[in-house]
Fold this protein.
Amino acid sequence: MQIVHASTVRHPSTNPSWCARIFDAKAARSGGIVRRAVKDVDREIGRVAFINEVSRRGYHLIECGGQFIVICNAGKMIVHT
C-alpha cells in the first residue's frame, strides 16, 4: 500500500481540467474504457472527487491492482467470474 502525503495532494480546484481531460478522451466519448493509476487520481483530484464524478456521469468504476478502470457506459453491468 502506498502512502500519499497531504503535501503532494492537489485540491480539485487547483486542477479542474484533469478530470475533464479523462472524460474527453475518445474512448470515454465512445462508451469505452479509460483507466488511471489510483496514485495519480489521489494526487490530482482525490479519490472521493473522482468517484463522485464517475457516479455523476452514470458510469461504472472498478479498482484493481492499483488502477481505476472506468467503464464509460451507463448500461447494466454484469460481472462474470
